[in-house]
Amino acid sequence: MASSNSASSVASNSGSPCAACKFLRRKCLPGCIFAPFFPPEEPHKFANVHKIFGASNVTKLLNELLPHQREDAVNSLAYEAEARIKDPVYGCVGAISVLQRQVQRLQKELDQANAELLRYACGEIGPTLTGLPVVGSVNIGGYGDGAMRASSIVRHLYEAQARAQVEGTSVTLPLAYNSTSCGAWRGGGGGSNSSANSNASLDHKEGGDSI
Question: Of 13, 26, 103, 121, which has the most beta carbons under 10 Å away?
Fold first, then answer.
């Protein structure tokens, strides 16, 4: 605000009226409400504002505002007036509509890019999961009677992990379905043999204790 007051005092001391007073053909007195915002070197600024809003309306508006609010108000009036002169039908609304359409278009492109990235991330895992042999059934974690197809479980878990990586979150795969277990399913029996051996050793130990 100090710069605005200094501009007003310089305009008054130099004897050169502000753009508003010069346009209205009146003497620019000290403390002129237009002087801080319409310097003599910008006559078109006040001419546009006066053409659209009228000098009396602008004077009334500035008097109702606090001093620190006036500069922003004048800049807004000048922008709206210039936009209305360029586009008499829509004014600044036309520029806002153009920007909104650009935002919508860019948002749609961003959504498409994210969807393509998700498909690419899932496609990296898809070919390896497609070749998995379908094992009859496995008990989840070794407990319970419920059985599910191993390939279906692994596929859903890895697809969930891929989506989580794209979204910036994390999904931890269960121990029973890690890459080692997947390799055992692909190899056809490595994991089953280890499980059988573990069960056999456990039975042997229990048998020994009972003796």
Answer: 121
Task: Please tell me the distance from the alpha carbon of residue 122 to that of residue 157, in angstroms, as a whole number.
Answer: 11
Q: Which helix or strand (DSSP H or E) is residue 137 part of?
A: none
* Amino acid identity for residue 151 in this structure: S
Alpha-carbon span 122 to 116, nearest angstrom: 10
Left if phi > 0, otherwise alpha if psi is -120 to 50, otherwise beta: which for 169? beta
End-to-end CA distance of the chain: 99
d(C-alpha 6, C-alpha 20), whole Å: 17
- The least confident of 116-120, 122-126, 145-149, 203-207 is 145-149
Domain locations in the chain as residue ranges: 2-86
Distances (CA, A) of 37 to 9, 18, 192: 12, 9, 84
What are the C-alpha distances in Å from 211 to residues 113, 197, 198, 208?
Answer: 68, 21, 20, 5
Q: How far is CA 113 from CA 102, 116, 123, 169, in A?
A: 16, 5, 15, 19
Quote the pTM value: 0.46
Listed in sequence order, the residues at least 6 apart from 68 whose beta carbon sits closer than 8 Å to its beta carbon are 1
Q: What is the pLDDT of residue 62?
A: 95
- Residue 150 main-chain phi, psi, to 5 deg: -65, -40
What is the mean pLDDT of the segment spanning 154-178?
57
Strand-pairing partners, residue 139, are 147
